[in-house]
């Protein structure tokens, strides 16, 4: 089952609530909230207030993607704000296992993200603990970037490891996902596609954009 996870980074912030409700009406099951601290990535976006503002407006799963240093310092606040899934970066803390346990102790789903230069072996010890692996297909920090094709073999390796160990975590990809790259990442093993600009910059609206992404993703060779 292929899923599209619209990223609000490219949404119209003057009407963020409506933009989230529009993708909910289009049938997605989640949105991704791109949290950036200006240190782990060269950009600053928003904190827990973005989650708490959206929480009462939608029944969608809210995925907080923490592109921040020391994510363990922010797990409580994003959980309290109403995030359903909290994704931390392997590169951002020496205490990945403890952070994942902390997320679970708060009743939330845990995701682990790896940047383009990070080999999957560095998350092998926690693959069985997480509900989602996020393979970054751009260097995090901005929307609208070029897809990094060198990440395709990595997606394949992550999927193969999950298969070999009979794990059930989702393989999510993020960055440069559009109608061209969607079938390529699905063929490599991704099942959740984060898309910001391909959804929110579409001239014919988010619903048509999501349907196009799904159609191209499902056309991937099995
Ligand atoms: C990290 C961000 C972006 C965003 C998706 O830079 O996490 O990847 O979600 O951006 P697009 O889909 O516009 O590449």
Give a short summary of the structure.
The protein is α/β, with parallel strands linked by helices and 222 residues long. It has a single domain (3-218), classed as TIM Barrel.
Q: Give the percentage of residues in beta strands.
A: 15-25%
Specify the biggest β-sheet.
8 strands, parallel
Counted beta strands: 8
- Write down the overall mean pLDDT: 98
Order of helices and strands: EHEHEHEHEEHEHEHH
Give the low-pLDDT segments: none
Characterization of this structure:
- By secondary structure, the chain is of the alpha/beta class.
- The chain has a single domain (3-218), classed as TIM Barrel, CATH 3.20.20.70.
- Helices cover 32% and strands 19% of the residues.
- The protein has 8 helices and 8 strands.
- Strands 1-8-7-6-5-4-3-2 form an 8-stranded parallel β-sheet.
- Strand 7 (170-174), helix 6 (181-188) and strand 8 (192-195) form a beta-alpha-beta unit.
- Helix 5 (152-164) packs parallel to helix 6 (181-188).
- It starts with a strand and ends with a helix.
- The model has no long low-confidence stretch (mean pLDDT 98).
- D-xylitol-5-phosphate is lined by residues 7, 9-10, 32, 34, 65, 138, 140-145, 174-177, 194-198.
- The site of D-xylitol-5-phosphate has 22 residues, from strand 2, strand 8 and helix 7.
